[in-house]
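Fold it.
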Amino acid sequence: MPRYIAGWKSMGFDGRFTLVLIGWIAALLATLVALAFAIATPDLAAARIVAVALVIGAGYGVARHVDRTNRTVGRFVEALHFGDFATRFDRRGGVGFAALGQSLDEAMRRLQAQRDRAADEQRFLETLVDDMPVALLTIDHRGAVQLANKAARRLFAGHGGTRPADFAVYGETFAARLAEDGERSAELLLLRSSTGPQRAIVRSASLERLGLTSRAVTVEPVQGTLDAIEMATQTDLVRVLTHEILNSLTPVTSLASSAAAVLDDDPPDLDLARTAVGTLARRAEGLEHFIRSYRTVANVPDVRLKQFQAEPFLRDLDRLFAADWPDLQLDITVTPDLVIDADPDLLAQAVINLLRNAAQATREAGRGSQITLTVAGDNGVAKRLTLADSGNGIPEPQRRDIFLPFYTTRAQGTGVGLNLVRQIVIAHGWTIDVAEAPGGGAEFRLYLG
């Protein structure tokens, strides 16, 4: 018997429930035997009545013992069904499930702790979403638009309704984007607001929730950032322009004064005046060339994309380079059958400018003659173009300025070439950076998508 009780305890039961149940069943059997004896024996009418009462009482005891346990377990399961993790197992009244109740109570405490942690995490995420500086809108499967955080409620406070069409007050294109299904990559849109028109980056993504598809749309106003960038660009441009124009005007002014002074002499020194005026004309021509170069920089390249083979494209550039710089070595590395998705004419112009800079830097350094041009990619499509020289390199503080228009460190440079390279790169949607080459020179990297 102790072995069976130990088995019951291992299942979460103690022996009390079973022993009490056996006792009631034994009592019921005994009263049934007594009732049968009273019925079989004559002249025991009173004993029969007592026996019947005892049978009913024993049966009631068995039913009550089992029913109380069932009701206790039922209430506990119902509490679980409704998520009431504060409920504890009722072990009063002789239920007899002390070990089971203890295990269930411990499980309930763990579930309650997990729910509390999940609630804390949910509150944190809700606060994070609500306080994030980017406006967030959600669109459910019925097309209803909800403002999901404070930034969205501040930005879109001038309308009523939840339909995408209700947001047309901020821009028809924006309302059309809200009405579209599916995902959309970052897009720069012009929005109308109470503070005036402003540009914003709009992104959308599809989400699955409870088996239904919804969308999340983020709106990040960038007008202030763009204005700051524009002002910084204008400041840099004015700084470079004034520097270059003053550098050109200073000798022009000096030569003009010298020529006027010579002509005022009696008699005038015509040879000296002629020399001064000739020099003045050449300097004026140089200033005109500079201004024409500025007009070239101001033109945005018109990109016409097409796919073409990388290897023959680079071999043509190799022949052009060899014709202009026969004393320098250009090593080209390219995977066979690699294709480039670009405007071939604009890309050739950009690479030629980079090759020219690399050749000049390599020749000026006088410590090597090797220039490497590498094109690498994935799945047969070019993704990166790298050009490294063996010159003196570009100091870290100057790497940001070299792409500015008219910025140059060479006496004969115009500062236009690298700016045009950057314009071509940006027009393609690519990026460009410059670092130190393995051999100590400069390494330009074009990331082609």
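The radius of gyration is 44 Å.
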